[in-house]
Write a structure and sequence with these properties.
By secondary structure, the chain is of the alpha/beta class. About 40% of the residues lie in helices and about 20% in strands. Strand 1 and strand 2 form a beta hairpin.
């Protein structure tokens, strides 16, 4: 075929892989979606028909090569098809976060100059309409779900299925043009543009080529022996590079099936029904699932609780060794088999992990205790280290070399180096092309030889060749006594406790570390209900004396653990405040991928930071918040400042 040329196996684009999958897998499932409680399935042949019809419809609407097509909504086959259809006509798909507010969408739509928008439903359409007068390049918007759209002005609005129908009707007229467009795609043509989370400023548009996507998908699939038989659940934001490489790159390279849940609320139920063989989630998902497990155990009877803790203690002792094929005594094996029958098996089934062959977590560091918990049950959970700019993969963990304190060895085709200041650099076929319309940032991140600065501090272990990430380079510092300050290390330990949802540790340049803590409303609320403790709001529950004492106990347990690390024992938390509100992306305190914006938090709660260090017992504060409907309000609170016991360690251990 005209467009089957250079590149991995002669396949130089996602549309080319689609044609190969039709030829090779034809009637095998490519996509599933649960709607109204029923799973609907599309084969690779049916998927190609849907995508081609939309591509012809986009041609009919005047989409030109190089145009940016914004795609907004939750994970649905129609939106994945939209990205491939845009690629077919030579356009660039730009997925946006579905939970982004209108102002955030305005920035990205303006920055990329999107002429066309494909939105999932009325909610997303309304957000674009709210800002469309500021979008000078915007021309047309398609919507998938017609509910609530009947009375809208349809001069610039088009139903997705109608555009497909128009494309099918114009097949004879436009198919040659579509074939010509696909033939013009080469390995260096832009495949997708993904915006960074924007922890330190405005999001940047990361341009990724077909070479980036296909080479990364090929190498990573071969590394983990992925085949067309895998099943995955696509539930993470489509604007995140992790979802794109798993649900598009690897899916199209391997030919496996992508399953889309009915909604965020049914995700866990749908996960159990699909029972994926290949699973990916950021640490916050695994933390949330662990919280649910612990809540259920609190509600269980005395016998079940004792059995759970008994077998989990044994699993922590021998489970990871068994998973890696190590030697374990006969009695321990038999005991583990009993645990599998009574505890681990039912638990994995309840989580939807009963068939997971390969599981990954990435996005930020996962707490070692959380990581070890899942592996102890026989779940092959591994860590990878990556970035949008790397097309995900920088390091991965080979089977048999999985550890909680490292992120593995360089992924296939990746070169690593550590600068004198400890910053990690990499070079690979996945290195991004550029930041869109931002040559200064591109030059500041990627040098002329293709080396990319990660912004993370770490080191490579001489004995194993594994990379160990300490923290974000900009967040790593020194305490007043010269000892190392690395907040993420402590925060991850705190978040192991189901009662703690988020933690922000401070202390750079100070004589001691302090912390802001968010309670997990689900876990703590469950505790309150079991103990007949009434509360009217998050703020009221977060300030309850028993809650504060419980959190204090967690902080002190973490301090004992941190004290055992010679390099980081200066990072024990001396004082903390349980915040009166959850850190929220809508309030600018977190990114859409739930990464804390440390500078924003420190500035916004400057009065609380002062109280943590000036010896205050209480502090009054007022904080502006954004409600779900977009209205602004103010929360007023009198907060307790609590002290936590620390373990004495020799001075300047880390500096020596």
């Amino acid at each position: 075929m005209a467009y089957m040329a250079e590149g991995a196996e002669g396949l130089r684009s996602i549309p080319a892989l689609l044609q190969r999958n039709v030829d090779r897998f034809g009637d095998k499932p490519a996509y599933r979606e649960k709607e109204f409680g029923i799973w609907q399935t599309w084969s690779w042949k049916e998927t190609q028909d849907e995508i081609q019809a939309l591509a012809l419809g986009l041609l009919n609407m005047g989409v030109n090569p190089g145009d940016h097509v914004a795609i907004i909504g939750r994970n649905r086959p129609y939106l994945y098809w939209s990205m491939v259809a845009a690629q077919m006509v030579g356009a660039v798909p730009v997925p946006l976060y579905a939970d982004a507010v209108a102002d955030e969408m305005e920035y990205i739509l303006s920055h990329c100059g999107a002429r066309f928008v494909i939105a999932a439903d009325q909610e997303q359409v309304d957000k674009v309409i709210e800002v469309q007068e500021h979008l000078h390049q915007f021309e047309h918007m398609l919507y998938v779900d017609p509910r609530g759209m009947r009375k809208y002005d349809h001069r610039r609005l088009h139903e997705y299925s109608h555009v497909q129908a128009q494309g099918r009707a114009a097949y004879d007229e436009l198919i040659m043009e579509l074939n010509d467009r696909m033939a013009a795609i080469d390995y260096d043509t832009t495949c997708v543009m993904l915006y960074t989370s924007g922890t330190t400023g405005k999001p940047k548009g990361v341009v990724l080529s077909n070479r980036n996507i296909i080479e990364s998908a090929k190498a990573s699939a071969e590394f983990d022996n992925l085949t067309e038989k895998e099943e995955i659940l696509a539930y993470l934001p489509m604007a995140w590079v992790g979802d794109f490489i798993f649900s598009v790159g690897q899916s199209f390279w391997c030919g496996f099936c992508v399953n889309c849940p009915e909604s965020a609320e049914t995700m866990l139920t749908d996960l159990r029904e699909i029972a994926p063989s290949y699973y990916f989630a950021p640490p916050r998902v695994f933390e949330g699932q662990l919280t649910q497990i612990m809540i259920r155990m609190e509600d269980a009877g005395n016998f079940k609780q004792k059995m759970f803790h008994y077998f989990m203690e044994h699993a922590r002792k021998v489970g990871p060794t068994l998973l890696d094929g190590g030697k374990v005594g006969l009695m321990d094996r038999l005991k583990y088999m009993m645990g599998e029958f009574t505890t681990y098996g039912p638990l994995k089934n309840a989580l939807g992990f009963s068939k997971v062959r390969v599981g990954y977590t990435a996005g930020e560091a996962i707490g070692p205790e959380i990581f070890d918990f899942y592996r102890s049950m026989g779940i092959n959970l591994k860590q990878l280290y990556g970035q949008t700019e790397a097309t995900v993969f920088i390091t991965v963990q080979p089977d048999g070399q999985v550890r909680s304190d490292t992120v593995g060895v360089p992924a296939p085709g990746v070169e690593l180096r550590i600068e004198d200041d400890g910053e990690v650099y990499y070079r690979s076929p996945g290195v991004f092309v550029e930041y869109y319309n931002n040559p200064e940032s591109t030059a500041g991140t990627k040098d002329a030889e293709g080396w990319v600065a990660t912004g993370d501090a770490g080191f490579i272990e001489k004995s194993s060749g594994h990379l160990r990430i300490i923290d974000r380079a900009k967040d790593v510092g020194k305490m007043a006594d010269g000892s190392l300050f690395a907040p993420k290390y402590v925060e991850n330990k705190l978040k192991f406790y189901p009662n703690i949802l988020e933690a922000v540790v401070m202390g750079n340049g100070k004589d001691r570390c302090t912390a802001f803590i968010n309670i997990d409303l689900t876990a703590v609320g469950n505790w309150a209900e079991r103990n007949n403790i009434a509360y009217a709001s998050y703020q009221e529950l977060a300030g309850h004396p028993q809650v504060l004492e419980t959190i204090k106990g967690h902080v002190e347990e973490v301090n004992k653990s941190v004290a055992q690390d010679e390099m980081l024992n200066g990072c024990q938390v001396h004082r903390f405040i349980v915040l009166h509100k959850e850190l929220d992306a809508d309030d600018g305190e977190m990114t859409r991928t739930r990464k804390v914006k440390r500078t924003v938090v420190a500035d916004k709660f400057a009065d609380l930071v002062t109280a943590l260090y000036d010896g205050s017992d209480k502090v009054y504060t007022e904080t502006e918040v954004t409600y779900e409907d977009g209205r602004k309000g103010v929360i007023k609170a009198n907060l307790d400042v609590r002290d936590a016991a620390v373990v004495a360690v020799p001075s300047k251990v880390a500096a020596e």
